[in-house]
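Next comes this protein.

***
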Amino acid sequence: MTVDAVLVSREDCPHVLLIRRKSDPFAGTWALPGGFVDEGEKLATAARRELEEETGLKVEDLEQLYAAGDPGRDPRGWTISVVFLARVDKKKLKPKAGDDAAEVGWHPLDELPALAFDHAAILARARARLTDRAE
């Protein structure tokens, strides 16, 4: 079981926070902050922990978006990832790479780099949720 955190900025041209993976699988590729849930750990707690370990950011207001469970999503084996979403003011945040991240940065949702795992599909789902809310 894993968790992924989608942090989207609250601006006219929204950006998403991504990490460049330090290790395989997908070393050197951009990805959402996330990782494995520890035994007995609550999902939201795991998402906050992974986010802080990989980006140095503490974000309390995470909303559970959905569970991604395509059997081919991770080359290490079948994993289910619970995805969390938060809208943030990126001007107030100072992310820094840590743990499994070689680099961390904000990327425009309209101009995403190649992404690891199924993170492009996850971001499409997050974008649809944000669009539904705006209407």
The helical segments are 43-55, 119-134. The mean pLDDT is 95. Strands lie at 2-9, 15-21, 30-31, 34-36, 63-68, 81-88, 101-108.
